[in-house]
Automatic annotation (TrEMBL):
<keyword id="KW-0472">Membrane</keyword>
<dbReference type="Pfam" id="PF00153">
    <property type="entry name" value="Mito_carr"/>
</dbReference>
<dbReference type="GO" id="GO:1990575">
    <property type="term" value="P:mitochondrial L-ornithine transmembrane transport"/>
</dbReference>
<feature type="repeat" description="Solcar">
    <location>
        <begin position="126"/>
        <end position="212"/>
    </location>
</feature>
<protein>
    <recommendedName>
        <fullName>Mitochondrial carrier protein</fullName>
    </recommendedName>
</protein>
<keyword id="KW-0813">Transport</keyword>
<feature type="repeat" description="Solcar">
    <location>
        <begin position="33"/>
        <end position="116"/>
    </location>
</feature>
<dbReference type="GO" id="GO:0031966">
    <property type="term" value="C:mitochondrial membrane"/>
</dbReference>
<dbReference type="InterPro" id="IPR023395">
    <property type="entry name" value="MCP_dom_sf"/>
</dbReference>
<dbReference type="InterPro" id="IPR050567">
    <property type="entry name" value="Mitochondrial_Carrier"/>
</dbReference>
<keyword id="KW-1133">Transmembrane helix</keyword>
<dbReference type="InterPro" id="IPR018108">
    <property type="entry name" value="MCP_transmembrane"/>
</dbReference>
<keyword id="KW-0812">Transmembrane</keyword>
<keyword id="KW-0677">Repeat</keyword>
<comment type="similarity">
    <text>Belongs to the mitochondrial carrier (TC 2.A.29) family.</text>
</comment>
<keyword id="KW-0496">Mitochondrion</keyword>
<dbReference type="GO" id="GO:0000064">
    <property type="term" value="F:L-ornithine transmembrane transporter activity"/>
</dbReference>
Length: 313
C-alpha cells in the first residue's frame, strides 16, 4: 500500500487517505452535472489564460517564425511602431473561443481520467505516473481541437499587414482559405506529440504540488489563491521547458506557405532545416517571452478553474 504513491509514509498514511478522499471531492461518479461543471470551469480557465497570455504568445510566434536574426526587443518595438499596441492581441478572437473550449476539454478529460484511476485503484491514492497519463490523455484528445485553432491563430499573428491587401481578413476568412487548401489540420502530428507529453507533465506537476499540501491535512478547497497561482505558474513553466523545441517545429510547419509547402507535416524536415541554418539555438527562438508568459497565464488558468469549481460546488 505504501508503494501506491511516493508521498505516502506510515506516519502520514491516515492523513493522506483523508486528503485523497477530499481530492476527488465526491466526484468519483461521472454524473452529467459533474461533467458539465468540469467543462465550464475549464472554459473559464481557458479564457483567463488567453487574456493574460496573448501578448506574450504573439511575441513568441513572431520570434519563432522570423526569417532573420531578431531579438525580443526588436519584435516588441516593431509591433508597437508598425502595427500599434493592439497588435499584441492579433488573432485573439479565435483562441478566446477556441482555447476556452480546448482547455475545457483537456481539464474535463483530465478530471474524468482521475475518476477512472480512483475507481481502478479501489480508493487508493492516484500515483504520479497515473496523473501523467491523465494529463497525457487530455492533451491527445485536445490536439484535434487545438491544432486547427492554433493554426488559424498563428496565421493571423504572423500577418503583418492591416490593410486591404492582407491575405486573411479575419478568423472566418482564414478558416475558409485553409479548408480550401486542405491545410486546416496541418501540424496535427507534432501537436499530438507536444500536447500529449506537455499536458502530461503539466498536470503531473500541479497535482504533485497539490498533494504535497493536502498530505499536511489541508483540504483542497481550503488552499489559498496565492498557492494555486504559484502551483499553476510552476506547472506552466515545466510544461514549456519540456516541449519547447516541438513548439518551434509546430510554428514553422503552420506558417509554411499554403501553396506547395516546403515541409508539409514533416517534423524531421523542419528539424534538419532549422539545425542546418541556425544550430541548436533555432529550437529555442522565442523561449524568453514563452517563459515570461507561462507563469502568469497558467497561474490564471488554474486559480480560475479551481475557484469556478468551488463556486459551482
Amino acid at each position: 500500500m505504501t508503494k501506491s504513491s511516493p508521498f505516502i509514509t506510515p506516519e502520514n498514511l491516515d492523513t493522506f487517505e483523508t486528503s485523497t478522499s477530499d481530492l476527488v471531492n465526491n466526484k468519483s461518479n461521472a454524473t452529467p452535472s459533474r461533467i458539465i461543471k468540469d467543462i465550464l470551469a475549464g472554459t473559464s480557465g481557458g479564457i483567463a489564460q488567453v487574456l493574460v497570455g496573448q501578448p506574450f504568445d504573439t511575441t513568441k510566434v513572431r520570434l519563432q517564425t522570423s526569417k532573420s536574426g531578431t531579438t525580443l526587443l526588436d519584435v516588441v518595438r516593431s509591433l508597437i511602431k508598425n502595427e500599434g499596441p493592439l497588435a499584441f492581441y492579433k488573432g485573439t478572437l479565435t483562441p478566446l473561443v477556441g482555447v476556452g473550449i480546448c482547455v475545457s476539454v483537456q481539464f474535463g478529460v483530465n478530471e474524468a481520467m482521475k475518476r477512472f484511476f480512483h475507481h481502478r485503484n479501489h480508493g487508493l491514492p492516484i500515483t504520479l505516473p497515473q496523473y501523467y497519463l491523465c494529463g497525457m490523455t487530455g492533451g491527445l484528445v485536445n490536439s484535434f481541437l487545438s491544432s486547427p485553432i492554433e493554426h488559424v491563430r498563428i496565421r493571423l499573428q504572423t500577418q503583418k499587414s492591416n490593410g486591404l491587401d492582407r491575405e486573411f481578413k479575419g478568423p472566418l476568412d482564414c478558416i475558409s482559405k485553409l479548408i480550401k487548401q486542405r491545410s486546416l489540420m496541418r501540424g496535427l502530428p507534432v501537436m499530438m506529440l507536444r500536447a500529449g507529453h506537455g499536458i502530461g507533465c503539466y498536470f503531473l506537476v500541479y497535482e504533485a504540488l497539490i498533494q504535497h499540501e493536502m498530505k499536511k491535512g489541508i483540504a483542497r478547497a481550503e488552499l489559498p489563491a496565492w498557492k494555486l497561482c504559484t502551483f499553476g505558474g510552476i506547472a506552466g513553466t515545466v510544461l514549456w521547458i519540456s516541449i519547447y523545441p516541438l513548439d518551434v517545429i509546430k510554428s514553422v510547419i503552420q506558417t509554411d506557405r499554403l501553396h506547395n509547402p516546403v515541409f508539409k507535416n514533416s517534423m524531421i524536415k523542419v528539424a534538419k532545416n532549422l539545425y542546418a541554418k541556425e544550430g541548436l539555438s533555432a529550437f529555442f527562438k522565442g523561449f524568453v517571452p514563452t517563459l515570461l508568459r507561462a507563469s502568469p497565464a497558467n497561474a490564471a488558468t488554474f486559480v480560475t478553474f479551481e475557484f469556478a469549481l468551488r463556486m459551482m460546488g
